[in-house]
# Entry
Amino acid sequence: MLKIALLGNPNTGKTSLFNRLTGLNQKVGNYPGVTTEKKVGFLSSNHKPWAEITDLPGLYSLTPASVDEEIVTQILTDVQNIHHPDIAVVIADATNLKRNLFLYTQVKDLGIPTLLVINMMDEASRKGISIDEKILEHRFQTPVFKVSVRKNQGIDSLAERLAEPITPTPNGTIPSRSKTHFVYKPNAKPKRLQESIYRYRAIHDVLQEALTVNRSEARDFTSRLDRILTHKFWGYAIFLLVLSLIFQAIFSWASTPMDSIDQGFTALSQWVRAVMPAGVFTELLSQGVIPGVAGVVMFVPQIAILFLLLTLLEESGYMSRVVFLLDKFMCRFGLSGKSVMPLISGLACAIPAILSARNIENARERLITIMVTPFMTCSARIPVYTILIAIVIPRKKWGVFNTQGLVLMGMYVLGVATALLAAAAFKKILKQRYKSFLIVELPPYRMPQLRNVWLNMFQKTKAFALKASQIILAISVVLWFLASYGYREETVDSAARTAYENSPHKAEGFQAFAGSYRLKHSYLGRLGRFIEPAIAPLGCDWKIGIALLASIAAREVFVGTLATVYSVRDEGDDTSIKQSLSREVRIDGSRLFNLATGVSLLLFYAFAMQCMSTIAVVRSETRSWKWPAIQFAYMTLLAYVASWLAYQILK
Amino acid sequence: MRISDLKRGQCGVIKGFFAADLPEKFYEMGLLPGMRVELHSDYWFNDPLYLKMEGCALAIRKAEANQIEVELAE
# Structure
């Protein structure tokens, strides 16, 4: 099948064109060995696909500056690469043709048959820019198409042209006046300045003939808007407003669908238990698989909303302004303006956040961003925080605030502060291999295209759900096994009965007591008792230990596990868990969940790396086990020390 | 003078570079001799700088802006 690669600068409508050409006939996958997203679509006539189009990551030149760009350069320069295209379609922004043609000439000079698509013609003509494509075709020896993807103009004839063969021209795009024939070579660094000068000069010459501009105030609207949006006071005020909107959206808009998903899965699990024949398989399904999947699906609404908003910010051009506004501040912590987006995404979930750190060019800044992002208060911590705060923090009013709300807010601030401080520490430790620099385009503000936004949100959310559920599914099956075996099935009931007769707490009823008894004698229970000496200084007993162990898979498991350990009858609401946890006592009769234990646990959950999926993502993003291991170790150590201090001081 | 010496709204034409090791990306994005840049406005730290160029706008840090020589233009 014909292989067509679509490439171009960022913000040129490349993905929109891809979506238009392929419709919904596309697949999202990964390139082998790396996690760079690979988007492939098909062109077909009479339901027969005849060409495969790949949407390559956006880039300004063939010199790779980030992981994503490296892949593009590899594909284009290596003829042996299985993704090497038969045709390259370079899409350029009509309102900024000079810079866009730079990449085009580089690609053309590689000898790949190339087709130039000039997009945003509608915007260009509004700005008084007219382009003579005949001159471009003649000078560059290339078919040129003027289109407006947004208005769906010119796409059909482009698709038709792709079916016909394109002959590569032997001559480079840079005229023979320059003696050297520039072809991009991966390692020819010293020539790059000269190459750039020649290319821009050649492009300038061509555009003198091909391009006419009637009005020069082309960027007027964007410029005026930026007087406010990047203003030294209003710029930051508006950013904080946008941030709080994102925050608000993640929590309030997502809460209803999250609750119904939670109830739906609980019902499903009960239904499975009621309908299927009792046995190991049913148990595995109803207590391992279904709750495991539920744990992931529950976060889908939040992730989807987050992706929706971030895509809107990205497509409108605002995200580059955030990079601009915060770069100086982030630099002090060894990060860059480009680290802001991963950190914000971390408020929903560290996994997409760490993936989005990919467009940070500097290797050290990217690594530091990855290492500290898990400190951001992700949504899996919310259920843990909510229940602990409800139990141990007394509800008091201070003016309009109440203490519990303030503590929850404090946990968020703590997360951000720790992330920044940890980054500053890494800045001191890690050696700088390449000079840190920043060059970002501040693209003109444009109305986001809803079709793209939806598609992007859908694809990213799907990728998250698949990736996360595989890992959590595996872990929850293992946990279920550990929690369900280890005692002797024949004798456990009578043993539980005897223990129940001797127990002073008969309030819960035998059913609940037996459940808790089984757990205590399971492998997981034994593990909990095994680690008890280690966690006793944090104010935790073996039962909390079980919940801590279970949370290594995913934090949100904490509440559910505690409910099982403390034999709470499942009434499907938080009040019963809260009440029975506050009733728990230590051997000496004092309350188990007192302020000291509560704060100690809050800190532990704030700092510890309790998320297998994140570890797996860090491993694939850094391509080593070293960094996830270091991350796990330092975060857990920090968590332990902080909890220990808190408990010892407060008790 | 240097790009970083430009005042708000002033334009300059790039003359050359004080350092030989600017990242290639700067050249490729069009920060080359003969190109005209305008400082969009000045900010709190004056870092990064917001530069308007023909057809596009870029943000670069002061450290690199210090390495680029310009000649004041009207």
Summary: DSSP finds 27 helices and twelve strands in chain A. The first strand of chain A starts at residue 2 and ends at 8.
